[in-house]
Amino acid sequence: MKAQSIKTAAGDIKTGIAWEDVAASLDAHGNAVLPGILTPEQCTELAALYDRDDIFRSRVVMARHGFGRGEYKYFAYPLPPLLERLRRALYAPLAEIANRWNRQMRVDVQYPDTLDAFLDQCHRAGQTRPTPLILQYGAGDYNCLHQDLYGAHVFPLQVAILLSEPGRDFAGGEFVMTENAGRSQRADVVPLRQGDAVVFTVNERPVAGLRGGTRKVAMRHGVSVIRSGRRHTVGLIFHDAQ
């Protein structure tokens, strides 16, 4: 996979993503950072959408469901143009990685080349509700370790984009991943700046076995406690929900 630009109607989002490096980081750690995929201006515009009600299908207060503290809103279709185009542009190179992973894990699922084709599979299975979302955290809030699994059709990679600036808008609130491979467990804190995206494993990923071959390890993600300020994040999930 060659480096490439992602363009939207709002202009270039990111120039020269080195997808081979992204794939290598995902293989090694289960996550990869795309630095500066959005500009500060784009981040501010997206964060401001949180106060609107007309563009969202639902609001979730996390404490009511045992998810942690904070809240998030799922966008309704049609998505904001910036997120729609970004979701489509990121899907194709990530599908290539996802298909390779499934072959390594001997999972008999291969993802189509385009997001439209994949969403058609989701919709025919009754998964019709959009899953891109925006999250809002204040002081004392956090997100429990979890996996975003919404139905039979699950895309194994997800993208979160930090819209706020650490150290200026908030303190704490680090993106955290854990890996569970039986007796072997690992935690990974992924540092992000405003406009950075992290691509990460939704459920399982392949790793080399100690005696050869490939084994599956389970991944979870969350956000540590916000010590002060307010943190906004956009989440791009590629499968729709039931």
From TrEMBL:
In the UniProt record, the signal sequence range is none
Q: Fe2OG dioxygenase domain location, by residue?
A: 128-241
InterPro entries in the cross-refs: DUF2086 (IPR018655), Oxoglu/Fe-dep_dioxygenase_dom (IPR005123)
The protein's matches in Gene3D superfamilies, at most eight in alphabetical order, are given as: q2cbj1_9rhob like domain
- Record keyword Lipoprotein present: no
In terms of superkingdom, the source organism counts as Bacteria
The molecular function GO annotations come to: metal ion binding; oxidoreductase activity
Q: What are the entry keywords?
A: Iron, Metal-binding, Oxidoreductase
Q: What does the similarity note say?
A: Belongs to the iron/ascorbate-dependent oxidoreductase family.
Q: What is this protein called?
A: Fe2OG dioxygenase domain-containing protein
Organism of derivation: Cupriavidus yeoncheonensis
